[in-house]
Write a structure and sequence with these properties.
By secondary structure, the protein is mostly beta strands. The protein has three domains: 62 residues, Roll (SH3 type barrels); 60 residues, Nucleic acid-binding proteins (OB fold (Dihydrolipoamide Acetyltransferase, E2P), Beta Barrel); 57 residues, Nucleic acid-binding proteins (OB fold (Dihydrolipoamide Acetyltransferase, E2P), Beta Barrel), CATH 2.40.50. Helices cover 0% and strands 55% of the residues. The protein has a six-stranded antiparallel sheet with strand order 1-6-2-3-4-5, with no helix packed on it. A five-stranded antiparallel sheet has the order 9-8-7-10-11, with no helix packed on it. Strand 10 and strand 11 form a beta hairpin. Pathway: Protein biosynthesis; polypeptide chain elongation. This is Elongation factor P.
Length: 186
């Protein structure tokens, strides 16, 4: 247990029975009455922002979170199997922790996973991945009215919009946070 005055941005707390990440800490000293903290927390599971007013000596529980690099091995039902790069231990991580970037994961890729007392609480795919185009429509000469983009299918079955010059067999870099084409890889 720690006092509210010891909370820092980035800490993981157990607040009202939920795990939250501290996003903002403001110290207020009004003209009358005691000083207090106005804190903003992001719920780790739901992503919802919660605001709280804490007295300076109020007790909060700061959780011990371990974050490490893991290697993604394969998909198993509603979970992803990952392996610790140092101990070779395998863990099942729910797909939901990766969010929408889960569809860009390839076997053998490194991912970042955070554990709080043996329970996975956060997972993050790399910001950019390189994928091969398995199918793309042929470009029609002079068709630039639609922003010069066409649909293409990547090696893991994801359809994304790419520029007209990208062809089947090309490798491209995709931003996993937005799902958008970044550049063609040589």
């Amino acid at each position: 247990m720690a006092k509210a005055s010891e909370i820092k941005v980035g800490n993981i707390l157990r607040f009202n029975g939920e795990l939250v990440s501290v996003t903002e800490v403001l110290h207020r000293t009004p003209g009358k009455g005691g000083a207090f903290y106005l804190d903003k927390f992001r719920n780790i599971k739901t992503g919802k922002i919660v605001e709280a007013r804490l007295a300076t000596d109020e007790q909060v529980e700061i959780c011990r979170v371990e974050t490490n690099d893991f290697q993604y091995l394969y998909e198993e039902g509603d979970s992803m199997v990952i392996m610790d790069n140092t101990t070779y231990d395998q863990h099942n991580i729910p797909k939901a922790l990766f969010g929408p970037s889960v569809k860009f994961l390839k076997e053998g890729m490194n991912v970042i996973v955070s554990f709080e007392s043996e329970e996975p609480i956060m997972a993050q795919a790399p910001n950019h991945v390189e994928l091969e185009i398995t199918y793309s429509e042929p470009a029609v000469k002079g068709d630039t009215s639609s922003g010069a983009l066409k649909l293409a299918t990547t090696e893991n079955g994801v359809e994304i919009r790419v520029p007209l010059f990208v062809n089947q067999g090309d490798k491209i870099k995709v931003d996993t946070r937005t799902g958008e084409y970044v550049e063609r890889v040589k």
